[in-house]
Amino acid sequence: MEKILSRLDELEKQNQTLLEEIKSLREAVKSQQPASAQATEELKDRVSVAENRIEEHAQTKVGSSQRLPVSLTGMILFDSNLLHGAGSYNPDPNYADYSEGQPGGGATLRQSVIGLKVEAPQIAGGGQIHGSISMDFDAGGENKDIFRIRNGDVSFDWSARSITVGQDKTIIAPLEPTSFAHVGIPPLAGAGNLWLWRPQLKYEERRALSLRTRAVFQAALFSTGETYATYPIAEAYAATTRPALQGRLAIIHDWSDRTKLSIGVGAHESESHISGKSIPSRVLSSDFLFKPLHWLELSGTVLHGENFANLGALPTGAAVDGTTLIPIKGSAGWMQIAIPVTNRLTFDAYAGRQVNESRGLTLNQIAGNLIYAGNVLYRVGPNVMIGFEGAHENIVYANHTLTLTNRYDATLAYLF
Hints:
The chain is mainly beta. It has two domains: 1-61; 62-415, Porin, CATH 2.40.160. It has helices at 2-31, 37-59, and strands at 70-85, 104-108, 113-123, 127-136, 148-157, 161-168, 198-208, 213-223, 243-254, 260-274, 277-293, 296-306, 318-321, 324-327, 329-340, 345-356, 366-381, 384-397, 402-415. α1 runs antiparallel to α2. The radius of gyration is 24 Å and the shape is globular. The model is unreliable at 91-101 (pLDDT under 50).
C-alpha cells in the first residue's frame, strides 16, 4: 500500500507539472502574431500531446509481474491497394500474398503492429536494461493471420556503450525508406534494402569527437537466412542459417537539434554451406543521412558484394556455372528525399535498385530489380496518419525479358 500511495503521489505531481506546462503553452499560443502560423500550429500540437500525456498518467498504470514499467506500442494499420501490370515481385515465397502477383487489388489489417517496451532499474556502472518486442499478423503461408515476431531485443545500455541480444535487420544497412504501405515487408525489399530480421548479438561503442560530432562503432555476430537466398540446389543440401561477422563505423555531426549529417561504412563476412561446399558471402556498404534544413532530409544506402541475398537482398545468392557452384556478385542501393512541409504534412520520394551478375543464372532467374515510389503522409491528429502512395517496379530476367508493375496504396494508421 505504501508503494501504491507513493506511486499515486508521483503521478499527481507529474500531472500538476503537465497542467502548468499546458497553461504556459496556451498563453504562448495566444501571444503569437498572425504571421507566425507555423509556430502557432507547433504549439497547438505540443498542447495536444501534453493533454494526451495527462490522460495516460491518469488512466494507464501498467506494470509487469516484476513491478517494472511496461509500455504498449504499435499501430492499427489499414491498407488498401490496387495493382496494375504483371504483379509485384516478392522474393520470399513465404510472403507471396503481400503483393498478390496478379492484377487487381485488396485490403488488409495484417500489417498492424503490436509491441511492448520494458525498462528495468539501473545496473552496475550506471547502466540500465531495456527490453522490447514487435509483432504483426503478416506471417505468410497458408494461415496468414497469425502473430509473427518482427524484431525485439534485450539491451544493456551505459553512457558510452551498449550490448544487445535480439532480432533485427543487419547493422551494415540500418536505414530504410518511409512507407505505411509496406510494413509487413519493408519498402524496397529486393531493391537495395537489406531488410531480413535475424537473431544477432551486437556491441556498440559511442565516443564524442567534439561538442557536436561523435563516432559510433558497432560489431555483431549475425545469423543469416540462407533459405531466403534460394540457392539452385535442393534446400535439404544447404544449411538454413550460418554465423556471420559484421562491423560498422559511423560519424555523426549535429548542426542543431533539427539538422545533421551521418555517414556510415560497414562490412559483412560469412560462408554458405551447400552440398558440402563453402560459398563466400561478402558485402561492403555505406549509408548516409543528410538533413541540411529542417524541411529537407536525404538518406540512402549503397552495397556491393557477392552472395548477400541471405541478408534480405534480391535472390539468388549462388548459381551453377557448368559443374561449379559460384556466388552471384551484385550491386544495390536506394535513396529517399523527405520533405516535411509542416509538422502534419510530409512528402517522400524514394527509389532502389539491385543488379546481379548474369553469369550462371538460368534464363528465368531475376538479374535485376528497380522500384521507385512516392507518398504523401498527413497527420490528422496526434495519433492518426493517412497516406497515399504510388510505386512502379521493373523486373529484369536473365533472358532480358522485362516485367512492369504499378501499385497504388491508401493507408490509415492509428498509432499508440
